[in-house]
Amino acid sequence: LVVKHVWDIAVFRWDGAFDPWRAETDQKQIVQQFYSFPKTELLERYAAVYNGPPGYAAVMSVLSAFWEPKDASVVLNIGVWVGALVLLFLAGKRTGSVWVGLAAVVLWAHSVDSWRIIAGGHPRTFAPFFIALFLYAWSAGRRRLLLLTLVLEGATYPSVLIACGPIAAAAVGWDWWRGEPSVRRQLRPVVEFAVAASLALAFAKAQD
Fold first, then answer.
1. Rounded Cα–Cα distance for residues 110 and 6 (Å)
2. Structure letter (DSSP) for residue 30
3. φ, ψ of residue 162 in degrees (nearest 5)
4. Could you write out the DSSP letters of every residue in 119-179?
């Protein structure tokens, strides 16, 4: 029943998404065409602004090797939506039960905002996926995945760091403090967090 519900919603939302005559917006003209212009051209500068996040530019560059940018942005849209759905199920299952995971899936699929936020193939499209990945890493106790998520956020959509950064710092600090005295004397977790945070902030600052 849950699979049928999610499938029906997905079909409703993306039916016709690959129609060649669908309405176009300039954010979907991302990689291939813009970068064929010389660096002095206005369109190339516009592309540099849109492709400012290096993580986003890398993903769209790969996808645009297989699809036109307008279609690549739709593929990105669908992939992020499905990825967030899977991660929310795993996080819900780990923190509660299978039923909690299924409830998270239904709420995510049914929410209009879950589609509205990721629509368009923008860098902000990654926001729900990163939040879901952060929740999964946190609930699974996978601290290095948590730190990697921070770096990916900084390289792709830094706004998510505002929420995830302080929580990650608190989680790493708490794990370090509640450990045995021999563990607390080891600064490795703190150093790893400092390195990850520095990389995330450096990626974010580079997009100014």
1. 8
2. -
3. -60, -40
4. TTS-GGGGHHHHHHHHHHHHHTT-HHHHHHHHHHHHHH-GGGHHHHHHHHHHHHHHHHHHS
Distance CA 28, CA 125 (A): 12
Q: What is the pLDDT of residues 77-121, one digit of tens each?
A: 888 888 888 888 888 888 888 888 888 888 887 777 777 676 666
Q: How far apart are CA 129 and CA 40, in angstroms?
A: 35
Distances in Å between the alpha carbon of 104 and those of 82, 83, 176?
A: 13, 13, 30
- Interior/surface letters 112-132, b for 16+ CB within 10 angstroms, e for the rest: eebbebbbbbbbbbbbbbbbb
d(CA 26, CA 48): 13
pLDDT digits (tens, 9 = 90+) for 37-81: 555 566 666 666 666 688 887 887 788 788 777 777 778 888 888
| Helix 143-156 × helix 127-139 angle, to 10° | 170
